[in-house]
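dude i think i finally got it to work??
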Amino acid sequence: MPLIALRPLLDYAAANNFGVAALNVNNMEQIQAIMEAARATQSPAIIQASRGARKYTNDLFLRNLMQAAVELYPEIPIVMHQDHGNSPDTCISAIRMGFTSVMMDGSLEDDGKTPASYEYNVAVTREVVNVAHRFGVSVEGELGVLGSLEHGMGEKEDGHGAEGKLTLDQLLTDPDQAVDFVQRTGIDALAVAMGTSHGAYKFSRKPSGDVLAMSRIEEIHRRIPNTHLVMHGSSSVPKELCDIINANGGRIKETYGVPVEEIQRGIRAGVRKINVDTDNRLAITGAIRKAFTSKPEEFDPRFYLTPARAAMQQVCEERMKQFGQAGHAKKVPLVTLDQMAKDYEAGKYGDAARPDSANQFKQAKKK
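look at this
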């Protein structure tokens, strides 16, 4: 089964009222864990890589690892997604490397740390849409800056994240702007800021409405019910995973993530893509620490990477079931990128999604 674009998967998810976990990878074991979980639960899969992951793995390794996943799991529809692209160039390079979906995060300037103006965000996101849709590749945009409503600061992860104090207006996506943003950019999915952040240390207590503004998602969904919404920074940071790390020499401080029931609330309010990374990192690290503690004389990487892979697979299976994607792998429409390009051009996904600059298309092909 070939890699597919994000849009038809999210359209299908919306029609069937479920969400899809978007899972970050850096190496072979993580891809294997996701694909084994997808096979075990018969789930479609969104596998995503950040700029940092692409640098760590190298694009050629990553592309061929993904191609191996396609060949070894032919029954699983897979989206290959660029997470938090900081500039049009980053997104275009991902398209050239075979990514079928890209995120243009114009909420920050291209340094990945300075909050951008609204008009800048619109301009760079539209530029990416004009290029990506000509290749049949889907585009996710972001409006509002990820950060904590508790202390007003952004959270840097993988070299990406706002620095300094943020205003409430920056930390919460404005519903009026969301309507305008979608209309002007033609994006396929919108990442919403409502108090989540990257990493393990999201909340100092179990989150309530004052620090996790799920009502903001619900209001945006009421305003643009046909737009697929995305929750970033949505790991649940299970205490049991932190406890395994700490019992084997780790020092994870008390922390709280996004409860699964709140994510499920978001899914009922139009959230179709849910980014999960930290939970998998915790599972992997706990398994490795436990292996080292149980047999300190062992040095074969397979000794500790095998249980690490299994631990991540377990988390992925749990999220796939909890988000509702389990059992849908064989039902997702398989639309080729060539057909997607024709559909975008024909206005199937709305006039705003039609690419409107042949010059940018030519420039992209030259790069």
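The radius of gyration is 19 Å.
im so relieved honestly
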